Amino acid sequence: MLTRRIIPCLDVRNRRVTKGVRFQNNVELGDPIALASRYYEEGCDELVVYDITASAERRPIDIEMVREVARAIHIPFAVGGGIATLADMERVLLAGAEKISVNSLAVANPALIGEGSRAFGAQCIVLGMDPVRVAVDARFPSGYEITTHGFRERTGMDAVAWARRAADLGAGEIVVNSVDADGTRRGFDLRLTRLIAEAVGVPVVASGGAGKPSHLADVFREGLADAAIVAGMIHTGEFTIPRIKSELAASGIPVRATW
User: Is 130 a catalytic residue?
Assistant: First the structure.
């Protein structure tokens, strides 16, 4: 049986890790390189680093930060923020990242997904999406609308339809970050994650809402997620990667041991 992956997320602004609730009221939590090293030493399976203001500020990603993360850890990690071209993707990969996460700029230019997949392989291309709950209707049959630029802009795109299109274009993985659950630490949006997982044939990563290990167990079982992103629950020190994995293993969820 495939093990489920635990992936710490580092949202970085001005070279500091931050965390907010539903994309607002962010507070600084520390140095991204130090936190990346800590979670690597604790036994996380992968890592994701988002330069969260790059797209909104219309600037390229902080490539030196990517290099520093690559020097500090020896596990796969994904990088997102401000990646708009194949040249941007190549710079990130040459800096040491294994995966490229595209979100807002892929909505603006969906062809970017296919171009990246053909050039570097589908396993390198991760679609990040930020759906928000809306009324179910003809426009949004899933009940979720895709937002971009840190929930600043609505797109009029249905979340499930966009997931299917991205997978068809060549995305090798999809990160589903619920805007409604983001930062609340009250649990993942299980319905949303399951809808996406059932609609596509690529791995789905649940994001937004993790507050305790049982939330991860729920999203693996009920949300059909292949991996789960954690942030606030470990940034605060309330939980560690070994404790999360230990509790998941005790509940029957297959994880890679760290003990």
Answer: yes
Query: Which distant-in-sequence residues (6+ apart) come within 8 Å of 6 by Cβ?
Result: 44, 45, 216, 227, 228, 230, 241, 244, 245, 248, 255
Rg (CA), the chain: 17
Residue 100: enclosing H or E segment and its boundaries?
A: strand 99-102
Buried b (16+ CB within 10 A) or exposed e, 142-151: bbbbbbbbbe
Q: Which of 45, 51, 88, 130 is catalytic?
A: 130
CATH architecture observed for domain 5-250: Alpha-Beta Barrel (3.20)
Which residues touch 86 (CB under 8 Å, ≥6 apart)? 112, 115, 116, 119
Give the tens place of pLDDT for each residue, 99-121: 999 998 999 999 999 999 999 99
Beta carbons within 10 angstroms of residue 111's beta carbon: 9
Domain segments of the chain as ranges? 5-250
- According to DSSP, residue 13 is labeled E
Catalytic residue among 11, 62, 88, 218: 11
124-171 residue pLDDT tens: 999 999 999 999 999 999 999 999 987 789 999 999 999 999 999 999
